[in-house]
Specification:
alpha/beta; Rossmann fold; five-stranded parallel sheet; four-stranded parallel sheet; 38% helix
Length: 362
């Protein structure tokens, strides 16, 4: 079936055409995973699951950067908040994530100097204005946010700031796809690749993964018709037995991505093994500050002692992040764990799967 795409990609008629095409094409039971928290929220917000045929099962993957931040990293953030003469600057989603025995929100309530910022450059400005105090920025995110944090480190260097430091807990997406395919927890038929990350990386960044696994993979935008078009392409590939790496978001994503952003990333960070909540150690899936900029690395300049972390008892967040469970299958969901009293990060973050289920899924 040929779909005529209007320039107005929110057009309801286009959405109806795409749903009809998916229903007509889909015969085999498939499990499609979106690996972007914004996709997860958009799918729930617009009721996309409800209009798809029963043959299609959408899985929410590890697309929420706060959610995949390990418990040990959360405890490390809390340890920095307890340091004397230290201001911790963080994005707001991290505040309420429970650590082993506390949270940044609890530490703030007890008088620790923890400030929510909207940009890493806000933290640089803070360090410039308060040179008598150490400013530690908590760097969490995928390739979408990492370039701006890299640029903030370069800005601090150029300004001669000796009191600005970053804890880099960044994760990168392509190697996580490898780990998901190697997992025995769930069989994934195809991937909706993240739009924002792909703007930075470009389609070609997924080529080694695709060439190795030959699993259908389509970059998707965030409007309902963007997501439906990506699903349509995935279903068509699966039904025909012709896997492809495709770009259904060409108005924003190119083959090569944003060269300037990638150059800044490479200048500041280098790949390291990283611990993902629910998955474990994924080789070369994290970003560490390079030796040439070690003066801005909080982990090296201001080391803190952190006891061995403990996962929240009964929390299914790790299994939810890999698609092995859906939130209602966690025994704490809607009981001990709610947005008001979250047990795990999947219920805290605005991109968390549990938060999406709670808000949009009955």
């Amino acid at each position: 079936m040929t779909i005529k795409h209007s320039e107005e990609y929110r057009e309801p008629e286009l959405a109806r055409q795409l749903v009809a095409a998916i229903r007509k094409t889909s015969n085999k039971p498939v499990q499609l995973m979106e690996v972007c928290g914004t996709h997860t929220m958009s799918i729930f917000r617009h009721g996309i699951r409800d209009v798809l045929p029963q043959t299609i099962n959408l899985l929410s993957g590890p697309g929420c950067p706060v959610c995949v931040t390990s418990q040990q990293e959360i405890d490390t953030f809390i340890a920095y908040a307890r340091q004397e003469d230290t201001i911790v600057a963080t994005f707001g989603d991290l505040l309420r994530v429970p650590g082993t025995d506390s949270s940044l929100q609890k530490e703030k309530a007890e008088g620790r100097d923890i400030r929510v910022v909207y940009s890493a450059f806000d933290a640089v400005k803070m360090a410039a204005e308060q040179r008598g105090q150490r400013v530690v920025f908590l760097g969490v995110g995928f390739e979408t946010t990492a370039p701006t944090i890299a640029a903030s480190i370069l800005a601090a260097r150029d300004m001669g700031l000796e009191n600005f430091h970053v804890v880099s807990a960044h994760k990168t997406v392509p190697n996580a796809l490898e780990a998901l395919m190697a997992s025995e927890a769930v069989a994934i038929s195809g991937f909706l690749l993240p739009g924002h990350v792909s703007v930075i990386l470009g389609l070609n960044a997924y080529r080694p993964f695709f060439d190795r696994y030959q699993v259908p993979a389509v970059v998707a935008g965030f409007e309902p018709t963007d997501i439906l078009e990506a699903i349509r392409r995935l279903v068509e590939q699966i039904e025909k037995g012709r896997p492809q790496l495709a770009n259904a978001y060409p108005r924003a994503v190119s083959d090569t991505g944003n060269a300037k952003a990638r150059a800044v990333l490479d200048q500041v960070f280098e790949p390291v093994d990283a611990n993902w909540r629910g998955i474990g150690i994924i080789p070369a899936s994290g970003l560490a500050i390079r030796d040439s900029l070690a003066q801005f690395d909080a982990l090296r300049q201001v080391p803190v002692e952190v006891a061995e972390a403990r996962e929240p008892a009964g929390c299914g967040c790790g299994e939810i992040l890999t698609g092995a469970k859906i939130p209602p299958e966690c025994k704490l969901y809607r009981k001990a764990c709610t947005p008001e009293n979250p047990v795990g990060p999947c219920m805290v973050s605005s991109e968390g799967t549990c938060a999406a289920y709670y808000r949009y899924h009955g």
